[in-house]
Design goal:
Layout lengths: L2 H4 L14 H9 L1 H4 L22 E6 L5 H9 L3 E6 L3 H11 L7 E4 L3 H5 L7 E7 L17 H10 E11 L2 H10 L6 E7 L10 H8 L5 E7 L12
Parallel strand pairs: 1-2, 1-4, 2-3, 4-5
Antiparallel strand pairs: 5-7, 6-7
Helix pairs in contact: 2-5
The structure holds S-adenosylmethionine.
Length: about 240
């Protein structure tokens, strides 16, 4: 049994409707060169090494869906290396569609559970992370599938550099409450601001456009990775 099998699935499925031949071909022609391959063993890995030229910083998107946000960030920030995680094959293919003309060269893909990659990333190696519209898993019996859980936050905190920004968005009131009960009190995260509208450097995602079309009002949250853990209540000083 590998790590992926031990994790409770936080995503719905790996495959959707059958890919048209041209789309499926992107997986065999483009993915091998872009896919993150971790060396065997459990030694920490510097994600800058995923790129042909060491980027100024490495940013991480967890659950990039169709990849439009990831591709946008990569095209606007050519000196940054963007690592996108998404186990849903149709989403990976959609991202490859954004990259196929070769204009964007600073994206690498982990087409699996982000938590498996996070546990290998060198401490402090990620300068910014995005968790945009994680699956809300609304039924109480599925809450254990929610991505925002202590082990995920702990792994994310160790991969993020001190002062790194974490952007989170959700359109689900109950999940927002869940997130606000966990992230701002996590020892390594401070809530910086809660926004009702996205800033200019935060483009819409496909899920978000659908959700807003349904009449929902997403919340946009910015967190900062602390340089030292928050002192526990009652601690001296
Ligand atoms: C509701 S969709 C949102 C997708 C995209 N961020 C957007 O806003 O359009 C949530 C996505 O997170 C992905 N996901 C869920 N758990 C994940 C995990 N552990 N690692 C990586 N991606 C994950 C799912 O496969 C799904 O594509």
């Amino acid at each position: 049994m590998d790590e992926g099998e031990r994790l409770i699935h936080s995503f719905g499925r790996r495959r959707g409707r059958k890919l048209r031949a041209g789309r499926a071909a992107l997986l065999s022609t483009m993915l091998p060169a872009l896919r993150v391959a971790l060396p065997a063993g459990d030694a920490p890995v510097d994600p800058a090494a995923f790129f042909a030229h060491a980027p100024r910083e490495t940013w991480l998107e967890v659950g990039f869906g169709g990849g439009e946000h990831l591709a946008w960030q990569a095209s606007r920030n050519p000196a940054i290396g963007l690592v996108g995680c998404e186990p849903y094959e149709n989403g990976v293919v959609a991202l490859l569609g954004h990259l196929r003309d070769g204009a964007i060269g600073n994206v690498r893909v982990w087409n699996d559970d982000a938590r498996m990659l996070l546990q290998r990333l060198a401490p402090g190696s990620i300068a910014r992370a995005f968790v945009l519209f994680p699956d809300p898993w609304p039924k109480a019996r599925h809450h254990k599938r929610r991505l925002v859980q202590a082990p995920f936050l702990d792994a994310l905190a160790q991969a993020l550099a001190p002062g790194a920004e974490l952007r989170v968005a959700t359109d689900h009131a109950d999940y927002l409450e869940w997130i606000l009960e966990r992230l701002p009190v996590h020892p390594w995260f401070d809530l910086v601001e809660r926004l009702a509208a996205r800033p200019a450097d935060w483009p819409a995602t496909r899920y978000e456009e659908w959700s807003v079309g349904e009449g929902r009002s997403p919340a946009y949250l910015r967190f900062s990775r602390r340089a030292a853990p928050r002192p526990t209540e009652g601690a001296e000083g």
